[in-house]
Specification:
2 copies of one chain form a homodimer.
Chain A (H helix, E strand, L loop, with lengths): L2 H24 L5 H10 L3 E2 H8 L3 H13 L3 E5 L7 E5 L1 H22 L4 H22 L1 E5 L4 H17 L18 E8 L2 E9 L4 E9 L8 H15 L4 E6 L4 H9 L3 E3 L10 E6 L3
Parallel strand pairs in A: 7-8
Antiparallel strand pairs in A: 1-3, 2-3, 4-5, 5-6, 6-7, 8-10, 9-10
Helix pairs in contact in A: 1-5
Chain A binds a DNA duplex through helix 3 and helix 4.
Chain lengths: ~290, ~290
DNA sequence: CACAATCTCTGACCTTAGTCAGAGAACGCC
DNA sequence: GGCGTTCTCTGACTAAGGTCAGAGATTGTG
């Protein structure tokens, strides 16, 4: 069996397992749609938000809510500020039902874990974490966007805010590349399910380019995305005739430094004008 | 987050991932039920078998088949020997459709793997394998059954057949415990999804009991089931007042010997009358 | 050979999950 | 204050997935 077949086989296996688990804990008390809605309402939520979170048609949502409120689990009232929006709130019975579903779900998972030894449970969690991290990494898309695209600027703002916290001297957002200033080079944006989770750019016209502003969103760290971004930047630069990359970084950014070293960058004498770049690295691109 | 919550979180994540994958490759060409049926028919299958494999109502299956044969993908003919049963066979168009679905599925998995480096793919497969093995192990049930129950005898037959192949001198099935002979002791049967996948028994009235006939089905090896069975036998025996276990094994059964050693058994002088038991082990049970 | 069991098929019926086209109320902006 | 937009709700409709009760053919068994 090749790799693709092995993954498909695992997916089939796990689909089936999850099906059994779901059947067991849902116990036919509620249709799936209503159960999901009960969870999602939580401590009250606007219908508009519910619709977007669950991806429901407005008519369908309305009907689901009517059914739930018919069972006395939900009340739908007006929104405090916006009269068009309505908000759904769980009644006490609704909260009990929700807690009950939650407990059943926990119980069926607990029953699954029960026969395993503590060491085996650890291994299971570790392996699930690994599957998850690699699957997430694999589904992140990286694409070139203009450096003034709104999601690009959002990433850069987050990058600047983080550096401002981490650098002892703070970070001046004016040091960011100005919108539209990237005429020679590429800005790469990483997205997970459409949401921006990282960025980076290379710039320069000569045979030597500079990589800057490589950033990964905190909730996407540990996946190996920094490495993917760096590799994608190098590939893109190489495709534009760049043969060497230089980059500078701050001495407090230990994980960035480790990333560059692991990526084949060698530390060189810094001649950078930016006060934030205390270290300089260089790498020759091989085609 | 506790362990249960972590597992639930992984399950939610993976459900969603699989949903995206499925939506993508099924591409709305076929309803899920029909697609599954196309796969399952393969090179022809009796309707009765299809029904049990897919867990379908006979009326529903009939209707699905009519729909598929209406599209020219399937022909339904008589069974060669049993006139009540009918068999479904894929037409050429059906085989093309099936191959097409298969190709789409492979393609979407290939697209998932594509962004990963070879080392990351290896790690993903390794982790998926780990999740699968531990999940399988956790869902195996172990229960006491009479030593003459049909699934118990089936396991013992398989055990004897295997030993006969592995022992240079062969194995005489008469050496198996006779049906109904286990009056003092317990026969434990391991099942996965109802299917017997392993067994083992302890027997004896004194403070010292003997564990015999520990066997795990070839397709359930590598899960750690032998270890679970052994632990379950010890627990059951201890519950019946047994304080020490002795057991004998054949010198060619390397993995069994390793299992006993890892389980805390110490090799002792063999005084066994059975010609198959060249090695003897002993363990004091602690309560 | 009779009779019970097995197997497939049909028709009637049901729930879940969803889509679509408006109606009507409320809001935001000019 | 008018007007386009946003939001919810209703009614009409559809597809998928499935259940249930027989009818009719066939088979195994006493």
């Amino acid at each position: 069996m090749d790799q693709i077949e092995l993954v498909r086989d695992f997916n089939r296996f796990y689909t089936q397992r999850l099906g059994v688990l779901n059947d067991h804990y849902l116990g036919q008390r509620r249709p799936l749609g209503e159960a999901r809605l009960l969870f999602e309402i939580g401590d009250g939520a606007g219908l508009r938000e519910l619709r977007s979170r669950l991806g429901l048609d407005s008519g369908y949502l309305s009907r689901l809510l009517r059914s739930l409120s018919g069972d006395g689990l939900v009340t739908v009232g007006p929104h405090p500020t916006d009269g068009r929006v309505r908000t759904a709130v769980l009644t006490e019975a609704g909260q009990r039902e929700r807690a009950d579903l939650e407990a059943r779900s926990r119980e069926s998972v607990a029953a699954l874990l029960d026969p395993l030894t503590p060491a085996q449970r650890e291994r299971l969690l570790e392996a699930q974490g690994q599957v998850r991290r690699l699957t997430r990494l694999a589904t992140v898309t990286i694409e070139a966007v203009p450096d003034d695209a709104p999601p690009a600027r959002a990433c850069l703002q987050a990058y600047a805010a983080e550096l401002d916290l981490r650098f002892p001297e703070g970070y001046d957002p004016a040091a960011l590349i100005a919108p539209g200033a990237l005429t020679e080079g590429t800005f790469l944006l990483a997205r997970e399910d459409g949401r921006p989770v990282g960025c980076g750019l290379w710039q320069g016209s000569g045979p030597v380019a500079e990589i800057r502003h490589v950033w990964v969103s905190p909730d996407a760290r540990g996946l190996g995305l920094g490495r993917r971004l760096l590799a994608a930047l190098e590939r893109d630069a190489a495709g534009h005739g760049i043969t060497s990359i230089r980059l500078g970084t701050h001495s407090v950014l230990a994980e960035a430094i480790a990333l560059y070293r692991a990526g084949g960058y060698r530390e060189v004498q810094s001649d950078d004008s930016s006060p934030y770049n205390q270290l300089a690295f260089e790498k020759r691109l091989v085609l």
